[in-house]
Sequence to fold (211 residues):
Amino acid sequence: MATSAAASRIDPAEMLKEAALRLFAEHGVEGVTVRQIAELAGQKNHAAVGYHFGSKEALVRAVIAHGARLIDELRNHHLDQLEARGGPETLFDVTRLLVQTSLLPANSPWSDCYNRFVVVLQLSNRQLFMDALEGRWNSGYLRCLDHVRRLLAPMPPAMVNQRLLFMGSSLGGILSARESQLADTSRPHPTWTDPATLDAVAAALAAILES
Fold:
């Protein structure tokens, strides 16, 4: 797989992160070697990962933090706008914002690999994922959860937390499946290329919360 033209114009550390993300999304962290990452990033020196990041785990953490930061900044920006208009007023408002800001348009590979990477990683090493966030890059998500709790105020807190767990897992799983399908360019994907599908996903997540 060739690196993108955009990646060729940025520094080697960024190229390594992008290459790692693509490989981790396809094969999982444990299924990828630093040699493969360096080769995909166009680095002739196979010790490039160690030189720029110190270790493979440090590179994994850098990939987690990079994608999480992009999503968190986008999410907080849209949430600020929604709150300025007096929202969110409904659970659908919240879940639609979560869906829309989990995608990073025109920012490949972060736009088409990151959800797959995160879902697979959390199944094998959730603690590594949470540690890499450093309590910094999920503020927008936590703000959204606060709005859900406000909108579900009559519901017992333990039940709300359970619904939030179900919703969060479903959000990641659905968007990961979307990325996997769209990565297959051998056939069309009318469901996932239909803009209305993402609103349908948001509606399903809202139903999980309120049903």
Remarks:
- The chain has a mean pLDDT of 92.
